[in-house]
Amino acid sequence: MTTPRSAAIERKTRETTIRVELALDGTGRCQVSTGVGFLDHMLAQVAAHGLLDLTVRARGDLEVDAHHTVEDVAIVLGQALDAALGDRRGLVRMGHAYAPLDEALARVVVDLGGRPYAVVDARFDGARLGTMDADLVVHFFETLAAHGRLGLHAHLLAGRNDHHRAEALFKALGRALDAASRLDPRRQGIPSTKGAL
After folding, report:
1. Does residue 191 have a pLDDT over 70?
2. Structure confidence at residue 178 (pLDDT)
3. Which of 43, 95, 151, 193 has the fewest CB atoms below 10 angstroms from its CB?
4. Residues β-bridged to residue 31
5. Is the pTM for the entire model greater than 0.85?
6. What is the DSSP string of 54-107?
7. In sequence order, what are the residues at sequence separation of 6 or more whose Cβ sits closer than 8 angstroms to the Cβ of residue 63?
8. Strand-by-strand arrangement of the 104-111 sheet
9. Which residue ranges make up each domain of the chain?
10. What digits encode the pLDDT tens for the residues 162-171?
């Protein structure tokens, strides 16, 4: 399979304007500007550790709070992932990764089989991560799974520092997406006994 496995998606609402460009077979190149510094930092982790080339440009109603921006970036990133995967023919399909960051440890498991579902077990001690509400980490993962059409299990296994805990989750997400989105040279068709996803 020699298709370029990339996508560019835009979304414009009264609350946000988002553009995401994604290439699955990249080198980790990342250009991200959302106006939410912590989100930018987390997206850079996904790109770097998932070897995804990722460009995100977002303008949102940050005078309200970061919710709409974080949510809509997850929507568009999920849509870009779905588009870049195409018919998902030849995929490894499932992947998992553990990522440590000092005292923190996270595990993320993904299934790119087209069935959107998310189980996210991630609690934070503080209310905020930078200017972003901490509960938006869970919302980001759930929204990405819904719009990327993937099954996703994300679990924080250890950690004391909220920044480390969140960053470990996003690093594990990148690595799990890289593992699952690879093309298996032995697989010619759809990775399902049903013959369809």
Report:
1. no
2. 98
3. 193
4. 55
5. yes
6. EEEEEEE-TTT-SHHHHHHHHHHHHHHHHHHHTT-TTB--EEEEEEEETTEEEE
7. none
8. 94-101, 104-111, 151-158, 117-121
9. 6-181
10. 999 999 999 9
